[in-house]
Design a protein that fits this description.
Elements: H1 2-17, H2 25-29, E1 31-34, E2 39-41, H3 42-48, E3 54-59, H4 64-68, H5 70-79, E4 84-89, H6 94-103, E5 109-112, H7 121-125, E6 133-137, E7 143-148, H8 154-161
Parallel strand pairs: 3-4, 4-5
Antiparallel strand pairs: 1-2, 1-5, 3-6, 6-7
C-alpha cells in the first residue's frame, strides 16, 4: 500500500513540474489588442515574430512589482537588442494600459489582454497567478522558458543564450 501511495505522489508531482514547450490551441486563439485597437490572436502575434527570440512580459500598469522590475527589463533589452520584447498587459482599462506604456516609456511590442489576469484562455494556459511573469519563446516558436517571476532571473538569460 505504501508503494502505491508513493508512486501516485511521484506521478502527481512530476505532472506539476512539467513545463509545456508549446502553447495550447485555446491559448493561441485568445485575443489581444494592439495600441491602435486592432485585435489579434496570440497565434498571429507570435507568428509575426517567428524566427526571433521573444521575451514575453505579462504586466499591468497598476502592478508595483511590474514597475520595480522595469530597470532589469531595460537591462535585458540593452544586452539582447535582437530579441523582441512583447509586453502583454492584463490591465482591464485600455486607458490605464496605454497611459502606463507612455508613463513608463516601455520600448517593445505592446498588446492588451482585455479579460485581465483572472480570465481568458491564454492566462489560464500559463496559470497566471502573479505578475510580472516572464516567458521566453525561441526562434521556432517553442516555449524555451515557461515561467520566471523576476526579470533578473538567470533562467531568462540562459534561455536567451541557448543556440538552436
Amino acid at each position: 500500500m505504501n508503494q502505491i501511495t508513493l508512486i501516485c505522489m511521484l506521478f502527481l508531482m512530476s505532472c506539476n513540474l512539467e513545463k509545456p514547450t508549446q502553447f495550447s490551441e485555446l491559448a493561441l486563439k485568445d485575443s489581444a489588442y494592439a495600441l491602435n485597437k486592432e485585435s489579434f490572436t496570440i497565434k498571429a502575434i507570435l507568428e509575426k515574430y517567428k524566427g526571433k527570440k521573444i521575451v514575453i512580459d505579462v504586466w499591468a500598469s497598476w502592478c508595483g512589482d511590474c514597475i520595480r522590475a522595469l530597470p532589469a527589463v531595460r537591462n535585458l533589452q540593452k544586452s539582447y537588442p535582437n530579441v523582441v520584447f512583447l509586453f502583454l498587459s492584463v490591465d482591464t482599462s485600455k486607458t490605464a494600459w496605454k497611459n502606463g506604456v507612455r508613463r513608463f516609456n516601455l520600448q517593445g511590442e505592446h498588446y492588451n489582454l482585455p479579460k485581465g489576469m483572472k480570465d481568458g484562455d491564454f492566462v489560464d494556459f500559463i496559470n497566471l497567478g502573479w505578475i510580472p511573469r516572464y516567458m521566453v519563446i525561441d526562434e521556432t516558436g517553442k516555449i524555451a522558458l515557461f515561467k520566471a517571476t523576476s526579470a533578473s532571473d538567470s533562467d531568462i538569460e540562459k534561455a536567451l543564450n541557448t543556440v538552436l
